[in-house]
Predict the 3D structure of the following.
Amino acid sequence: MTRSDGMLRLLLVDDSLTEADNVTNTLRSAGHAVRASREDTLNGIEQALAQQTWDLLICRAALTSVPPRELVNIVHRLGRDLPCIVLTSGQDEIEELYNLGMQDVIPIGDSKRLQFAVQRELQSLFNRRAARRNERALRESEKRSRLLLESSKDAVAYMHEGMHIYVNSAYLELFGYEEAEDVDGLPILDLIAADDQNTFKTVFRQFSEQVESQSVHVSVQGVRDDGGLFKADIEFSHAEVEGENCTQVVVRNESEHEDVNSDQLQLLRDHDFLTGLYNRVRFMDELEKVAGRAGDSQADAALLYIVLDDFQLIKEQLGVAASEQVLKEIGEVLRKGIVDGDLLAHYADQVFTVIVNSDDDNYVDERAKAYGDIIDGYRSQISDKPLDIKCSIGISRISETSSKVENILNHADKACALAQHNSDERVMRYQAPTIELEEAEFDEAASWKPRLEVAIEKQNFTLHYQPIVSLHGKEQELYEVLLRMIDEETGDLIVAEDFIDFAAEFDMMGVIDQWVIPNALKSLAEHKQRFPRTRFFLKLSKQTICDPTFIDWLFGLLKEHGIPGESLTFEVSETDAMANVDETKATLTKLKEAGCEFGLEHFGSGLNFSSSLDLLDVDYLKINGAFVENMANDAENQAAVKAIIEMSKNAGKRSIAEFVSDANSLALLWRLGVDYAQGYYIHEPSGELNYNFEDDDF
């Protein structure tokens, strides 16, 4: 059973009391303790779903006042993980009902099948709920472990055979190191004063020989990176990391005696120094709790994602100090607008977040409007010029089917982005895809499958080339290879953006890559006879990256065409690379061994794109074109591009800006220091390799 009390909460959608009683009696005869409620209008169903948690919904297909399609849309919109079973007296509508997403379609009167279907769906629901609880428990456990280590004022390290394999921030600070890599693999003995090393080794040896021993302490002189000494109390205890036995080391500086009130420490950890509101870490903790309650079907809530519009321009006008004062004042006026049940936080630079503990959409909309009005009414005394600060607000419902923190934040962010681009609506609510939208997307995908199959069979493809020109990078003759599909009926060229996602969905990209790469290498070999400095950028799909035969096949082609690996740079999207990081790293290593270079395409798409550079040793970062396109008129995009360029320089990578569409953007990119640029403003893709790199005026 799905609940500890053994009760089955059943929502019956039927206008016949007799039919509803028949269903209830059928389930009770199968041993279910049923608590049923009956509704026969869309409004009544929506209220019932919003006000209570249900385990099962059974509806009769012939009910004209409640079309099954509308019923499913309500369940999706409210984010309910609710199995839906339809009872029908006809055969013609069965396929259509299944296509709507019903868990089962059962003939009226077939009691045995209904009992079986209900038991199956309840067990499945129980498993999903248990999985969500376990996933949250695991996340909480991992988070507590990380926070315990990283926020601990004690210096903590883990060692294997006397070598450091992990250190926390306090450990680095205590010993005067800046990066964890500085001590990775370093013997702990190197951090002990020479006069105390024999004592340390004796105690550590005795501890190591007693596998089940309790923790052991030793007092020695610790050595900082600059050679300074301090009196250290070192505690050893046995531990296990990723299945391997190791030693946990806790080092305390006996030379210092801190006497800080624990409540004060907690206050500092939980609150943002600038605004005094909850900081991002504390907010995420609270969001986890609220999402956990929603995932356990206890209570729905909503997240408001409030972004100050054009704040980057305000920062440029006022400077950093004055703009921080603006944020502080906005935080103060927002705090005054809090009502019971709201939790307000300063999430990021120009982003404030609010958890509204209510499942009433109308009330949540009112709270969003109230916070928007507060910001509209804010008047700053900082500048002589009046600041007209506006905001955009995205709303994400926190529900049973939307209880992952990452999804909740993504949904709110997407809704906020829609609000920013909609001049008529400041507040937008994230809407889950409706049945109609899903069907339209399914129909479009289905229509592409035969077209792609014909194109692959008849090799109805051609290649175009777009130059990549140097702004600050090394002068090179670079072209990106772009795919075009030839329409079988009209002969028109179809750009890859129109069909590539469908090809990936149908697992056709590997076959397409096997057409593109040989034809590109043939073209490159011919062109290099006159222009030997030419190099190609070639895209690799996820399917090809994960193909273990790809490297040997590629090396055979390079040998066949007499092309050195240095003439090729392979690109993979950042999203695909991070989703298949092990395969990408293996492929990247082998390509580099052959002299090829590697680039991340659409860089900046990921939520935490700096982690991509930590995991992948790439040569080029191609900045997401969505940031570059029309960046001259968008301060937020400018800030994103600037951050990526600076990140690439700090990491020793070369940056490429794609989708350069106008002179202002190109000039701005030059000032920001991007290495290379590509786009229609520079040169449109062409079937000919005819760009004159010597005439570049950039």
User: Anything to note?
Assistant: Confidence is low (pLDDT under 50) at residues 1-5. The chain has 24 helices and 24 strands. Residues 111-150 form the longest helix (40 residues).
